[in-house]
Write a structure and sequence with these properties.
With 230 residues, this protein is mostly helical. Helices cover 72% and strands 0% of the residues. It is built from seven helices and no strands.
Length: 230
Amino acid sequence: MASTSSSSTPAGPSTPATLSDADLDRLLNREASAIQRELEVDRILAAFKLNAYDILDLGPSATADDIKRKYRQLSLFIHPDKCPHPRAPEAFDILKKAENELGEPAKREELDATINQARVLLLKALALPAATPDDSPKLRGLVPPFKTQLRAKSKELLIEEELHRRRSIKMNLANEGFEARKKDEEVATRKRKAEDDAKWEENREQRVDSWRSFSNTSKKKKKQKGALLG
């Protein structure tokens, strides 16, 4: 009687068709998370670099704790070890720089002052007092929204300040270069004078001898002339 043998086939990796609902949800969540990480990297790279609030996706009213919490959240989210985006390291560095700037009171106060100036200018253009709160009904329904206008105006002022800062640095460097050249010329002039004085002293004996020789020759000629006349 012939016997039939049954062979067992090892189970291969699960495919979407064979995954349980829970496994499929986890897989989709991982893929969605990877996409969100890359999108966040793109957002940080596209953010206005002179406005640290934009980079951290926060508003000027954020507290120090808000800033630390948001930085920790984003830094873990886009960390190069977890995010496959090729520019994740660059975005991570930009994020860290923004957190540092807002952590320095002087730099944050300077940024806040510029944003507040932009706000005052916008409210003035709308014929509204500077004390108008952001949630005022008069700011609703604006196109583009007031928040968008404030961000654009702040960007404009920050660019102007950065250009002014760079021009000042360039001018200072030019002035420093002029002063350095002037000092070099003064040093060179003093050096030439010292060399000329040294040469003058070195030739002093030669000039004295020449004068003595000339004087003696003149005396001899006078004696000879007197003898002839006498």
